[in-house]
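Need a sequence for this fold. Nothing fancy.
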């Protein structure tokens, strides 16, 4: 009989240890999800990119405005200039954003197999 009570106590202690480990893992996952939500909201906001790249945003906006203009006296020239400015802004800012996304990906540890 003493053996079964020792086994039951060991099982109870092991369950308690496992529950503690599960609780810690849940809290760690919750913190990571919260941080990911914050970072995602920043990455999907146009305001973030205007703050980070004000010159690119202005050039892009002017370029799009010129590219869409039809009633200006220099309509054809302004559209070509606008298209060029828009493409330049998209490539310049886009390449910087891509680098940021790669840095975030590597910092998040998603490429690691064992944590």
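Here you go.
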């Amino acid at each position: 009989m003493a053996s079964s009570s020792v086994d039951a106590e060991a099982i109870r202690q092991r369950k308690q240890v496992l529950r503690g480990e599960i609780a810690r893992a849940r809290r760690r996952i919750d913190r990571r999800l919260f941080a990911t939500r914050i970072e995602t909201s920043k990455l999907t906001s146009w305001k973030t990119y205007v703050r980070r790249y004000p010159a690119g945003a202005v050039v892009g906006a002017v370029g799009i405005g010129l590219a869409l203009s039809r009633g200006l006296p220099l309509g054809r020239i302004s559209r070509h200039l606008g298209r060029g400015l828009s493409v330049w802004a998209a490539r310049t800012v886009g390449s910087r954003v891509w680098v940021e996304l790669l840095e975030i990906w590597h910092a998040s540890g998603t490429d690691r197999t064992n944590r």
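For context: Residues 46-110 form one domain.
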